[in-house]
Predict the 3D structure of the following.
Amino acid sequence: MNYNTNEKGYYGEFGGAYIPEMLYPNVEELRQNYLKIMEEPSFQKEFNQLLKDYVGRPSPLYFAKRLSEKYKTKIYLKREDLNHTGAHKINNTIGQILMAKRLGKSRIIAETGAGQHGVATATVCALMGLECIVYMGEIDIARQAPNVARMKMLGATVVPALSGSRTLKDATNEAIRDWINNPVDTYYIIGSVVGPHPYPDMVARFQAIISEEIKWQLNEHEDRENPDVVIACVGGGSNAAGAYYHYLDNLEVKLIAVEAAGLGIDSGESAATSVLGKEGIIHGSKTLLMQTEDGQITEPYSISAGLDYPGVGPLHAHLFETKRAEFVSVTDDEAMKAGIELCELEGIIPAIESAHALAIFEKQTFKPEEVVILNLSGRGDKDLNTYIDYFGL
């Protein structure tokens, strides 16, 4: 079984590039060049240098002693929350801004949900002196105000998406419209392993730095490269793709993907794509998608702005379909409790997205000798208002 994309951009039956004709030249230009550019020694050198000196990589692999004692297993946290800008998103935006420059693009657009990808895009645009336009759902703008302020401070223009549910899906639609209207000078930095080929593969490759580091870091800690389990939250799924990347073909490493069940799987207020989704096409790729009987996309819901996407990246649809990864759904309530627990046990305030992954320990038991790695994809600064409202702090 192959878990990577084939030359047409499919993971099994998922993926591909379903795009309007107007976008074909842009996507094709990228497809023909992305691997070539990524393999250039000058690209590698600049990418790795920026990850080290600007992002602050490698991010630590931290043994969570008190969490491990409570759940009677060995829990390591991959501290993506310690990256510059506070999440894993910057790994990808650094890679893609270097790609855009080599393709001669001068104007950058992006979509964002929780705002972390928007901040990471605005950050690298400021770094490289390029114009930056970020599309963000009106509802997300309201609930992620600190990130909106950050983007503006970094010189980006934040454009509200006023259609549909006014969240991530709609911001993505607006970004795609912009790209169709400005095909020549504009580069679209997609923030997750979604969109038309080659985006899912390219983003996964940039995020693969996560599992690349885990291998040698775990060697230092445990004298072994492979953990027993890797856990990550999945919305579109880029942090999970990065954490799984170097373990995809190693069937001895169990992969667990945690989705947002919102108010409950059957509540009508959920974002658990693997359970509720059927095959469909969204934002340029064929994947699992929450939709009505007649194929209309249903509105996802999660307390976490980064997990309320109605689909999932085609890699994850494939991992679900082939049972390579186990998909688990976690409610708002379970996630919020797990977030507070990490604060109290380890002195780390996680993003609510990452808190969903942490909730796995209340749902599953791991053996005492097992080495469990959880990708702590982001820090909770952006979510303080949600924590405050939820717990009445």
